[in-house]
Automatic annotation (TrEMBL), chains A, B:
Upper lineage: Eukaryota, Metazoa, Chordata, Craniata, Vertebrata
GO cellular component: chloride channel complex; filopodium membrane; filopodium tip; smooth endoplasmic reticulum membrane; synapse
GO biological process: cell morphogenesis; cell-cell adhesion; cell-substrate adhesion; filopodium assembly; gene expression; L-glutamate transmembrane transport; mitotic cell cycle; neurogenesis
Protein name: Protein tweety homolog
Keyword rRNA-binding carried by entry: no
Membrane topology listed for this record: Multi-pass membrane protein
Transmembrane segments: 43-67, 88-110, 214-235, 242-261, 392-413
Keywords from the named record: Cell membrane, Chloride, Chloride channel, Disulfide bond, Glycoprotein, Ion channel, Ion transport, Membrane, Transmembrane, Transmembrane helix, Transport
Length: 460, 460
């Protein structure tokens, strides 16, 4: 038996949850999810700040490396026969970095789609929960109205018909009391009526934010892809201006990557804290937002054998009242119809109402049972804490790879374009024509060849 | 109100479903899903055969191209100064093809993961349905046993205690009859008892097959990735034996790609036929496998206002019987306990049993309602017809890209390695050292340079 397989925190959640957190004064912060507490907010902001620090450090390292390479190198003796060393390595490392960046982009697309999947699971679970809750309200309203209508019309008619027989009037009044009991008990079941929190609204808000998050990532990924491809093209065509533009763009994307890295790391940490024990937080938040009793919320959020159905008594009372109405109607039909044939129509109509009410009642019992809403809760948690977190970790990997790849490319690109020959208008990207400079070079004298170091020519 | 958002065939399903199908005699075949009919099987096999035809054609074209290039070219005049034309283009096109293949591999990994996601949704929906069905059986069994126990012990004790008062014995007998009615009605609710079809078994079978499918695709993707990377390495290092081995491996992967293309196309077509109107097929299949009445199956598979709950009557009868037991126990407690204090313990125990039975009854009503099982059905369909089909289409795109890329590579690779220079032991992949041959060449006489066409040197 047991509950159906619910949500279990994954290994990633445990791992991330166990990482130490600190506030701005570097005092340790407990890793329970508490987004309203200042020190917890500081702990997450510190993670973002760490990414900013990483960006600063990598920019300083790139600048230091480029300054060392360009300015502090001993001047080459003029007319030396050896080509500038490492030119090929520079281009190779640049290409390798860009390929790593492209692989990272693939991972990023996957992560973005996983995150989007997870969030759409969350919002579809919210929509389903909203459907359940609004169906409960609707069913209660419909059933209460139907019962009220029956009390006002058929039961009043019957009382008028039976005026002369007091015991029949008493039975009819009994049925009226039972119908009123049912209506009253049922009204207590529409527990979401008047609650200010709408899962539909939450789902729409979540989808709205997710749509822009998804779009922003797709744009970032496409931008980085374009930078990688155009940089490769620039290297292949030895187009100085293209490589310079792409160096600047790489710098921009490097900053964006570190920024997204910081946001992803902070979100992943916060999400892992939430996901390691979501029940308490969600329970408290829902109680604050809805003002519902803790017995109802416990029933739906925990939904195990230990928590009893808070509607059990109301359901049982309604059920007994419905059964009593049925037996009273049966009695009336047996005793009154032979004497008052005009009552038969009202009695049949009442039985029809009773049947529909019993059908609605069974549907209400099904909707009120914690199974359906708890399953939505489990689906929402799995979407957020499994798929969305996994996607976020893939996005983190993408940001890391792209930060590393772009930093390497930024180190290599200026060196690579410094090694490009002065623009030769006859050179084009066509493989067969590109060989021409080499052949010219071979047939010409030595000095022009100095400016054409074979080293960077080899690999494209 | 309406049902919660259920399964709707996607645009892909409609598109694929509208493609014409034909049997081996090329007579049109209706596109309704009928896997047991021979002509439908033939239509799917024809799709696989088309992929085989594609493989044959591409092999013939590759062979014809290579024969034309290698054998039918006018012999070059010895000592001609121009390099063999198109050598660079050959290498470039080979590299471009391999990069397209790598992009295809990325798409393939994504598609494989999507398909796996969809199938795991299907099997988790089956597991959830199995849990619901087994919980129904278990609850019915437990409740019937509990009622039987109460009838055997407490009610018998009460009858013995009340022996002297016939009207009390009659009330007790009435309660016993009602309890027996409840037990009998409840037994009819365990509709899945003795049904030979186990959703658990189906889920396990599906997961088992999916595991191997997933693994096979991962191995194919890794094989193709290795072939692409080692071919690029071979081109970069100009290693003839590596390129030859990779040409052979490319041929093997080309055959595998066309094979998987055929299987994917046939599966996607079959799946689109199934997904365009799954209800009828699944209903008929389930009816055959389980022997359940069509009212029950219609209720669960359609679950809309038009289909009434087939258990409604049993539930209402049980509910009324439970209410009757309650009122009889209330009457006994009121009238008998003052006279027979020894009956109180049995009466309290009976009320406890009644409360538990009412709780179980409400749980049964919830479990028997079509909402839960219909949602599982919808989840399974969405997993299969949205995620799995989408993943399959991505895999199809991967196979197409990789078949195209490998065919291009197979056309280019033999030409590329034919252009490699005889193995130079001093050449290695290090960028700075790779320039050495050029410099040697420049310093040496003209004839050795003839064997070193600049064209293939340029692009790597």
């Amino acid at each position: 038996m047991g509950a159906p397989p619910g949500y279990r925190p994954s290994a990633w959640v445990h791992l991330l949850h166990q990482l130490p957190r600190a506030d701005f004064q570097l005092r340790p912060v407990p890793s329970g999810f508490a987004p309203q507490e200042q020190e917890y907010q500081q702990a997450l902001l510190l993670v973002v700040a760490l990414a900013g620090l990483g960006l600063g450090l990598s920019l300083i390292l790139i600048a230091a490396y480029l300054i060392r390479v360009c300015c502090c190198r001993p001047p080459e003796p003029p007319g030396s026969k050896s080509p500038p060393p490492g030119g090929g390595c520079v281009t190779w490392s640049c290409i390798a970095a860009l390929l790593v960046g492209c692989a990272g982009i693939g991972i990023g697309f996957y992560g973005n789609s996983e995150t989007s999947d997870g969030v759409s699971q969350l919002s579809s679970a919210l929509l389903h929960a909203n459907h359940t809750l609004s169906t409960i309200d609707h069913l209660v309203l419909e059933t209460v109205e139907r019962l009220g209508e029956a009390v006002r019309t058929e039961l009043t008619t019957l009382e008028e018909v039976f005026t002369q027989r007091t015991e029949l009037v008493a039975a009819t009044r009994g049925a009226r009391r039972q119908a009123e009991t049912v209506a009253q008990q049922l009204q207590g079941l529409a527990f979401w009526q008047g609650v200010p929190l709408s899962p539909l609204q939450v789902a729409e808000d979540v989808s709205f934010v997710e749509e822009y998050r998804w779009l922003a990532y797709v744009l970032l990924l496409l931008l980085e892809l374009l930078v990688c491809l155009f940089t490769l093209l620039g290297l292949a065509k030895q187009s100085k201006w293209l490589v310079i533009v792409m160096t600047v763009m790489s710098l921009v994307v490097l900053v964006l990557s570190w920024g997204s890295l910081g946001l992803e790391a902070a979100t992943a940490l916060g999400l892992s804290d939430f996901c390691s024990s979501p029940d308490t937080y969600v329970l408290n938040l829902t109680q604050e937002e809805t003002g519902l009793g803790s017995d109802i919320l416990n029933y739906y959020f925990l939904c195990n054998q230990a928590v009893s159905n808070p509607f059990q008594q109301r359901l049982t009372l309604s059920q007994r009242a419905l059964a009593n109405i049925h037996s009273q109607l049966q009695g009336l039909e047996r005793e009154a119809v032979p004497q008052f044939p005009s009552a038969q129509k009202s009695l049949l109509s009442l039985e029809e109402t009773l049947n529909v009410t019993e059908g609605n009642f069974h549907q209400l019992v099904a909707l009120l049972h914690c199974r359906s809403l708890h399953k939505d809760y489990g689906t929402a948690l799995r979407g957020l804490c499994e798929d969305a977190l996994e996607g976020l970790l893939f996005l983190l990997l993408f940001s890391l790879l792209s930060a590393g790849a772009l930093a390497t490319a930024l180190c290599s690109l200026p060196r690579a374009w410094a090694l490009f020959p002065p623009r030769n208008p006859s050179a084009s990207c066509s493989g067969s024509r590109l060989s021409e400079p080499l052949f010219h070079a071979r047939l010409e004298a030595a000095p022009p060849l100095r400016s054409l170091p074979g080293c960077w020519r080899r690999p494209h």
